[in-house]
Amino acid sequence: MKTSTKDQIEGKCHELKGDVKQKAGQLTNDPNLETKGQSEKLAGKVQKKVGQIEEVLEK
Fold first, then answer.
1. What would the pLDDT profile of 2-56 be if each residue is shown by its tens digit?
2. Distance CA 40, CA 11 (A)
3. Of 18, 27, 35, 54, which cross-links 40 as Cys (Cβ 3.0–4.6 Å)?
């Protein structure tokens, strides 16, 4: 598997996990969990974007 594809997939997974953590934090009224979810979601978006850039540069 290309590293660009792997980064995109891992990034999407981090985005989804972050979204779940953020929602769980909102439901349980836990600001720390909500913040961790937002951070992981953002990190996932960055990783996914890096994968997209790598894919363009590989061509």
1. 888 999 999 999 999 999 999 999 999 999 999 999 999 999 999 999 999 998 9
2. 9
3. 18
59 within some domain: no
* Spatial distance between the Cα atoms of 58 and 55, rounded to a whole number of angstroms: 5
Grouping H, G, I as helix, E, B as strand and the rest as coil, residue 28 is coil
Other Cβ atoms less than 10 A from the Cβ of 18: the count is 20
Whether 8 is in a domain gets the answer: yes
Residue with tokens 């997974």: 13
Domain range for 32 is: 3-54
Residues 6+ apart with CB under 8 A from 1: none
Q: How many alpha carbons fall within 13 Å on the CB side of residue 50?
A: 13
Contact in structure between 38 and 49 (CB atoms under 8 Å): no
